[in-house]
Every structure is written in C-alpha cells, then in structure tokens.
Amino acid sequence: MFPNPWKASYWGTFKQEGKRLPIADGVEWLLLPTQLDPEPTAVLETIRGELETAYEKERVTLMHRRGAT
Which value, in Å, is the radius of gyration of the alpha carbons in the chain? Predict the structure, then answer.
C-alpha cells in the first residue's frame, strides 16, 4: 500500500520505518487514486521524476517507471 515501499510503514519489526525499501527500485507500475492524502502526496512528489503517467481518468492514475520495459 502506497507509500510503501518508498516510505516504509508497518514493515516487519519497524526497524525500517520511514525508509525507502530496496524493492522500490524494482517497481515498474504504480496505480493510485488521483486524490491522495498529504503524506502520500509528498512521497509521490519525491519520486515523480522516476515515473510518467500512462493513464489518468477521474479517480485513478496509472504511472510507469521511465525506461522500464
């Protein structure tokens, strides 16, 4: 659930809470509601340069990692 894995929350023993998890580098597609709460919006802004919008309609946005196949 976003913002995992870019900002870990409720992750295992909480030793990685708030950190970017290594698996974030392998995410190619991201499907999000168009309207996000402030915290997920802030995380999305930090990674927006890694992604491009593939589809957006009313309440959903599909994003793809730039350069991924």
Answer: 12
